[in-house]
Design brief:
The protein is mainly α and about 200 residues long. It is built from six helices and two strands; from the N terminus they run ααββαααα.
């Protein structure tokens, strides 16, 4: 099977990217509904419609076949959940951007024209998005640690935060920087070749 053109590996990858695109949008909708639900819950408890005993009483919630007291998860309030929603939004939003750019890239691969100028721009946007996601991850994990330390000292003492550097992500970013320049140079050479003919 050929790598580029119609009925190629690139066209199969393009189909897979379309599936991933749909799954990411589903996850984005779920995340938005979860954030809205949590915001509504906070508004209802602040206004007194839902009493504070909902979280501190003996109310139970059934999760995976086990009874869990709501009081046991009451410690996971806004200092934990808001950064979690932000981390989810950054990850899903960044993934949507990357998959959208990859879909455009593989559209041109499937048409048999890999050295288009916009492909270099797509690769550049992908590595910049990956860089933004990685830096946002460090920032949001640090923010979560600070919020926990200032609002939930017992939870912060028992929690373990590991700020690790993901070398595979940084390596991927460096590889994409090089590939973007290779595609830019390939597009330039193709334009020069077309002008000389």
């Amino acid at each position: 099977m050929k790598a580029l053109g119609r009925d190629s590996v690139a066209s199969i990858v393009r189909i897979g990217l379309n599936v991933v695109w749909g799954v990411l949008w589903f996850l984005a909708v779920c995340l938005a509904l979860g954030a809205l639900g949590y915001g509504a819950f906070l508004a209802l408890t602040a206004s007194g419609v839902i009493g504070p005993d909902v979280l501190t009483g003996d109310n139970h919630l059934r999760i995976n076949g086990e009874d869990v007291r709501l009081a046991d998860i009451a410690g996971y309030t806004w200092p934990v959940l808001v950064p979690a929603f932000l981390i989810g939004a950054v990850a899903i939003g960044g993934s949507l951007m990357i998959v959208w750019r990859l879909r455009r890239l593989f559209d041109s691969f499937s048409s048999g024209e890999p050295f288009r100028k916009e492909n270099a721009n797509h690769l550049r946007a992908i590595w910049m998005t990956m860089l933004g996601i990685e830096l946002a991850r460090y920032l949001l994990l640090g923010l979560t640690g600070v919020l926990l330390a200032t609002t939930h000292t017992q939870l912060a003492e028992s929690a373990e935060f590991e700020m690790r550097v993901d070398l595979s992500t940084w390596g991927s970013i460096l590889i994409l920087i090089v590939l973007a320049e290779v595609f830019r140079e390939g597009a330039r050479l193709k334009e020069e070749q077309e002008l000389t003919i």
